[in-house]
Write a structure and sequence with these properties.
Layout (H helix, E strand, L loop, with lengths): L1 E6 L3 H11 L4 E6 L2 H9 L5 E6 L7 H11 L5 E5 L4 H10 L3 E4 L4 H12 L25 H14 L5 E4 L6 H9 L8 E5 L8 H6 L16 H4 L4 E5 L6 H13 L1 E3 L6 E3 L3 E6 L3 H6 L5 H7 L2 E4 L10 H16 L5 E2 L1 H9 L5 H15 L3 E2 L6 H10 L20 H19 L4 H8 L3 H17 L1
């Protein structure tokens, strides 16, 4: 029986969840605060985590996911969210969440999905064996794109230049920021803030702190991120999401080298390296009136562009070896590598979630594997994505790497239309094949055969 941890401070949600879980093979533990939940996870007392969001005062599921992954990066994590849009769901899954659900909750279907996932969770030995190779601290890629990136980092690291880092989701923007912080400001703290998780009401408090009583929930004084990062580096990720009014406060802090807590009168001097990141060009946000032009020019002293993984695919082997070494250390395993057939799939896949997606896939593979990571170790949604990615044109109408020659005859177009429909229904049914087959009016075996045929077509192309 698997131990399931429910992180929720919502009494009604907890009550309903308890009433439904009686029909499933789980030992339930309910914890109402994130700190106690992390202690439970670090102690190895849970096999699966279900997190209800909001949790206490934390409304950002990405923040909660990162904390849970830092405690144990191998537990399947499910989210029950008050509100959920498609973009947020995709981002959470790319970060490594197992699945996300929004109100109204279909608890029986959710618990069935969790039960199926639990069936794939294997017992793990503690990572204490001295014979397990220790991973390096950093990857040293050798592609032309990576060499140029490292050159840019080395040029600006020992300066106090403000830097804008551009890159798609999952390309490693925070990793680059940390490398930059090891230059001139190496002896100071490094504080990272995801501006996408800062609400309009609390953004100023998170960044600059507040005084007790300055607003309704300000029950104590709070030190903001800029104070915490003083004499070091602050990294503001997704800076384009920062509220326009808070941008004015950030501009003032940059221009004057001083901050003032919300509700406070005292000015606090700061000496700080500011690095920001965005997955969209900030000059476009300026033109659209979403980002202050004067703040953009203050920040734009140096620019670094991180290439997506698909444009540095020759580095794939290095990243795979690095992530396997880390997973072997954490899991106490000796996984030797990736099966050649799966490695071929990896090289033809476009990796929309970039290095973060690869890391999550490799860690999941190491968890499930005994010797080599094979297709059988991969989650169903990733295998479906491989099929989709290698048979259908990309969003701009051009084919992805693995399907460069498809789409020019009626037979191929018919296959593309068929798999597109199958994958659409699969996604809508949370990759439940029984329900997918029922909706498509075919039996489960036929569905499996169709997916298998798509795989064979890809290998023969």
């Amino acid at each position: 029986m698997n131990n399931l941890l429910l992180l929720s401070d919502d009494p009604l949600l907890t009550k309903i969840f308890k009433s439904h879980i009686k029909n499933f093979p789980f030992q339930l533990t309910v914890i109402t605060d994130i700190t106690s939940g992390l202690e439970n996870i670090k102690a190895g007392l849970s096999d699966i985590v279900v997190a209800g969001v909001p949790l206490m005062t934390e409304h950002c599921p990405k923040k909660i996911l990162k904390k849970l992954q830092d405690a144990n990066g191998y537990l399947p994590i499910f989210f029950l969210l008050d509100q959920l849009n498609v973009a947020d769901a995709i981002a959470l899954v790319k970060m490594g969440a197992e699945n996300c659900y929004s109100k109204p909750f279909a608890f029986e279907a959710i618990l069935e999905d969790i039960r199926r996932t639990a069936g794939n969770v294997k017992a793990r030995a503690p990572a204490s064996s001295a014979s397990i190779p220790q991973p390096a601290s950093y990857v040293q890629p050798h592609s032309k794109a990576a060499t140029e990136l490292n050159k840019q980092i080395s040029v600006v690291a020992d300066t106090n230049f403000k830097v804008i880092i551009y890159g798609e989701t999952g390309t490693g923007k925070e990793s680059v920021a940390r490398q930059l912080s090891e230059g001139k400001f190496r002896d100071g703290p490094f504080v990272a803030i995801d501006c996408g998780c800062l609400s309009k009401e609390l953004a100023a408090s998170e960044l600059f702190g507040h005084e007790k009583g300055s607003f309704t929930s300000a029950v104590d004084n709070k030190t903001g991120a800029f104070e915490e990062a003083n004499n070091g580096t602050i990294f503001l990720d997704e800076i384009g999401n920062l509220d326009y009014n808070v941008q004015i406060l950030l501009l003032r802090a940059i221009e004057e080298g001083k901050i003032r807590r919300v509700g406070g009168n005292k000015e606090i001097d700061i000496d700080i390296r500011i690095i920001v990141a965005s997955n969209e060009r900030l000059e476009n946000a300026v033109r659209e009136g979403r980002f202050r032009e004067d703040l953009f020019y203050r920040l734009n002293e140096f620019e670094i562009n991180i290439p997506p993984l698909r444009e540095r695919i020759e580095d794939l082997d290095l990243f795979i070896d690095f992530f396997i070494a880390g997973a072997n250390k954490d899991l106490g395993k000796h996984i030797r590598g990736v099966n050649p057939a799966l490695l071929k799939d990896f090289y033809t896949y476009s990796w929309p979630g970039n290095i973060r997606q690869l890391k999550n896939i490799i860690r999941r593979g190491c968890l499930m594997a005994d010797d080599m990571i094979t297709r059988e170790c991969m989650p169903t949604d990733f295998l479906s994505a491989l099929v989709y990615d290698n048979h259908l044109p990309g969003p701009d109408g051009s084919p992805h790497a693995g399907g460069a020659e498809t789409g020019h005859d009626f037979k191929t177009k018919g296959l593309q239309a068929e798999i597109e429909e199958i994958l659409r229904v699969l996604r809508e049914e949370n990759y439940n094949k029984t329900r997918t087959a029922q909706r498509l009016n075919i039996d489960r075996k036929t569905l499996y055969n169709k997916l298998k045929n798509f795989r064979n077509i890809k290998e023969d192309s």
